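Q: Structure tokens for this one, please.
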Amino acid sequence: MCGDGGGTKQEFAQSARFAGVARNLWDDYQQRFAPVQRTLANTLLMDGLDANRQADAAADTVGKAFDAQRAGFDLDSSRRGLVLTPEQRTAADRQFDLGRASALVANRNAVRQGVLDTDTALVGGGTLSSAGRGIQMGG
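A: Here is the predicted structure, written as tokens:
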């Protein structure tokens, strides 16, 4: 056999053909699949930054919504002639702050879960364009 240092010309020729097939497969991989894998890996790595940016934008929106809700509460109270005692004001502020914190956490988790779901779909065989990235991979 060829592996023990000896062998026939036919065995050497067969080994050379197998080596050629292996080189062709490697070249094909490098040309067709490696660029797609690099694009996918870069996209998945950038998602951490993208998720944080989206979560920050969502947090800003939630903050504005709660500020508007608090201002509306204060305006409605003053229109009705209601004056809250310091204890009532503290309780109302606590309720607003708890609602805001809860909404912020839920919003950030939803954004991160959405990014994770998209990445899972990509790794599972989806394309970037179907995941909302606007980039078509493969071809």
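A few notes: The chain is about 80% helix and 0% strand. Residues 37-123 form one domain.
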